[in-house]
Amino acid sequence: MCGIVGYVGTQQAAPILLDGLRRLEYRGYDSAGIAVCGDGRLNVRKTKGRLQALAEATHEGADLPGSLGIGHTRWATHGEPNDINAHPHVSRSGKIAVVHNGIIENYVMLREALQAKGYEFISQTDTEVVAQLLDYFYGSCGDIFEAVTQMIHTVEGAYALGIICSDFPDRLIAVRKEAPLLLGYGSDGNYIASDVTALIRHTRDVAYMEDGELAVLDGHGIRVYDRTLCPVHKERHHVDWDIDAAEKGGYPHFMLKEIFEQPRAIREATAARIRDGRVELEDLHMTPEEIRNIGKIYIVACGSSYHVGMVGKYNLERMLRRNVEVCLASEFRYSDPIVGPGDLVIVISQSGETLDTMAALREAKKRGARILSIVNVVGSSIARESDDVLYTWAGPEIAVATTKAYSTQMAVLNLLGLYFGDIMGTVSSELYHEVVQGMLALPDQMEEILAQPGTIHEAAKLFAGQESIFFIGRNLDYALSLEGSLKLKEISYIHSEAYAAGELKHGTISLVEEGTPVVAVGLYEPLFDKAMSNVVEVQARGAHVLALTTEQHREEMERRVPVVLTVPQTQQMLLPQLGVIPLQLLAYYIALERGCDIDKPRNLAKSVTVE
Ligand code: M6R
User: Fewer beta carbons below 10 Å: N end or C end of the chain?
Assistant: First the structure.
């Protein structure tokens, strides 16, 4: 989730690049850099931290004269945020510079192949292989366009790339595959950017690149080619958003934008970790023997990350056939936890800075447990203090209510379950295959759900005037209900509680009366009949039920319930990954109807660094 800007034309490139990068600042990043071609050579500057540091280091760009350049704001995935890992990355010859958004999945193999040819690598990034690969191909063909076409046939993964070469000082090359990139048509030059925000001050005439397309820009125009190198005519769009709307990519709120980013986030979190149907966790340093010898397993987290842990408990216990204890970090630290050497504590945190979670981690570490964290922010405190880190690669999350971080945490935990289960010999090959195939299909299924937001918005209108809403579910549906309920209360301020549906009769049902709103989650196939019984039970007391189930059970549910939301069928353990989307949208639209400040709900902070 990095930001890319590029310019070629008659103006000085560096100030345009810095301005474009500033427009991307709202996304959050940890380092930035620019490369400008002037006097027949490349000048590159990179700095860790805020953009102001880069602006000062270059005297607002004045130190890098030239009218061709590329810039990048980085949100670290491979390698810590520092000056070396920041983009642009430069080829061995010093002639080619590259900025990249996405993940090169086969970078380890490519790096080894290039090392065997004498190439040295200075960064920990996947992107540096692109620069060196281009160097290698360019060395033999002498044409940068030809080198780029050879490179894209060699790399696998997702990429938006901006490429410049000092031997071609009037040419900027852009390539796109599964990562956003757009072209900007200006009066004194042409542009590339990962986000329209970066261009809006310079041009509002843009064209969106499609997967597999390659563009060559100079000061006079832009030529675009498809993957067979046939020229493509691009339709231009005029963007009339104001700057605020542009930062949100046209969405009214970051939360909605981030909900819609989930298919891409899940793809990034999983695709690079599944190769030929097998889960590969290169970032995990535990040996098979250490994994087989794990003692107790704890999952420790707060808020939504804790809810991921609840889903994880059900799934890991299924895959590992051993007890998994889920603990609220704020309780764990004071509970004199029975944890020690040989035990594994899985710490989950989007920000990697949550104080309660950090304190729980330190407590477990002090007692000798091994710490494996699942974190979104690279280089954050929790990541740094863990023995192993699996990053979620969800990109910066800006809305206080977490959405894409929740989804990617769950995906990574499922991958971990498969990986451990395989080594421990507790997952059958059928189940392993079924879950892997299911995970690979999730992004498309999520797109399907997101294509119908209107139905959920209509349902939300029915519930928006309520003062208290119950969520009920069993097993994984209960774990999911906890998250649905938290999403609703934090952004809409409606009182809400989630109950394990079997517990209703032990007390809660006394609260159900004529008109009480109840969201019944009935996704989990083995307990669908039980879920139906609970629907009947609350309806008998007058509840107004909204049900969430799978497509397969739509008809049956509709016979009893007036408002039914559905998700496509998937492997049972993956249902919460799909089911959370309608619940996030339900909370979002209810909050919208109530006129709430959705991205910044009252009393809440994105990162809770106090006790
Ligand atoms: O950054 P973390 O994942 O450690 O944050 C934990 C909670 O504060 C967080 O999930 C919170 O509950 C969210 N606002 C929920 O949307």
Answer: C
